[in-house]
Amino acid sequence: MYWISDYMLTWSEAVDRCHNSSNNGHLVHIDNEEENTEVYAILYEANRGYEYIWIGIHDSEKEGVWTYEDGSNLTYVNWGNGEPTGGWGYEEDCGVIRFGDYNDITCEEKYRFCCEYYVVIE
Ligand SMILES: [Ca+2]
Ligand SMILES: [Ca+2]
């Protein structure tokens, strides 16, 4: 399941916030097109489809090599037109989703974020 914050944090604060929760979450990993559609639908429903929302991808370890926030390899990515730009004289190392497309932006900016949790149904 997904959870969208109603407050804004930097990307690394968002990583910690998702991870520190009791049910072992993480900043959302969008693994395929189907999940991308699902996450965008949820953001759209929440009236956040048009906003930058942090997702769990970054290239802060090595410029141009995008991974999930835990260092694992991406299985899917949906960059918007002309993205990732990398930055002009500054670093754009953290990923956001907007209108279902991704952009790389400066990690120190503050945006809302989407956590993903795995729920065990008994
Ligand atoms: Ca970058
Ligand atoms: Ca960018």
From TrEMBL:
Q: Name one Pfam family in it.
A: Lectin_C
User: Per the database record, which ranges form the C-type lectin domain?
Assistant: 1-116
An example of a GO molecular function for this protein is: carbohydrate binding
Listed name of the protein: Putative alpha-N-acetylgalactosamine-specific lectin-like
Keywords of the record: Lectin
Glycoprotein listed as a keyword: no
Superkingdom of the source? Eukaryota
The UniProt record lists the keyword Lyase? no
